[in-house]
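User: hey, got a sec? need asparaginase folded
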Amino acid sequence: MGQVVVISTGGTIASRWQGSGFAADARGGDVLATAAVPAGISVRVVDLMSVNSARLTTRDQLALLRTVHEVLADPGVDGIVVTHGTDTLEESAFFVDLHHHDPRPVVFTGAQLPLEAADGDGPRNLHDALLTAGTAAMRGMGVLVAFDGQVHAARGTIKVQTLAADAFADPSGSPVADVKDGRVLVRRQPERPAPLPLPQADAPLPRIDVVMHHCDADPLLFNAAVEAGAQGMVLVATGAGNATPEVAAAVEAAVARGVLVALTTRVPSGPVAEIYTQGGAVDLAAGGAVLTGTLRAGQARIAVLSAALASPDADERTRVLRQLVAAPAPAAETASASAHASA
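Assistant: Yep! Here you go:
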């Protein structure tokens, strides 16, 4: 246990009624006041922003990333909690994780019900996130998501419920820990690629777009994004990563122009795989698309963004993207749920 810094960014956990709907307007101290702080933890709040997370931009996410690194420059800090809107939490958490090289945990959390809801889930989620961030056994696990009594690795974790309390899960994996009876019970150690350095402060922000394949889809929207200046594209394909010969030709042409193309699927779980031709993943990969394993659209886009920020060179961007999306080796379940908050 020790000092945990809460970085407040807004979201439902900080939202109040605005007359026609809810919007984030509460400061971090107001959010913290709703939660029980675990024994032995002291908390400092950093108010970074207060917005609904659907409005976040790459510039906002870079500001969050740099704030995390600035906070961790203080050796007296034992962990960080980021309160964040659930709409894009999976993207921001993965973005920070790809650049997180410190053993101290960074734990994202939020809420499905607004700040002043009588039965709100925010207070429990924030308590659990503080406990997780202050637990020594969680060191070295990278960026985490604490929600509804479970702790997930940032990588692969997406929002799976629009309204229900159990909003987050990794459809292709399992939680790394549970929070129960005031303890963090570790299940497994997540595997992560080597972290990237911080993007340069003055680096131009690349346009990265997402296009979904469907029956009757043609390359029109994909090509329009490329013509609009996209430096990276995510193709959300069907099945294990399949489209049409026309789309495969558009992908090959975009890659030849230096556009970074990632291939994911609209299926909730399972990996993208080279099985089918005639526009399938076999042809898309041959045309230069990078298969993203079990990463889904939002996080595949973040991987492309981080690769684009890492280098101006197309070949180097592709190399970095392949490194970021490579399937981690499976992590073994722990023999027993023995790690807890007394550490």
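Quick note: Residues 3-186 form a domain with the Rossmann fold fold (CATH 3.40.50.1170). Let me know if you need anything else on asparaginase.
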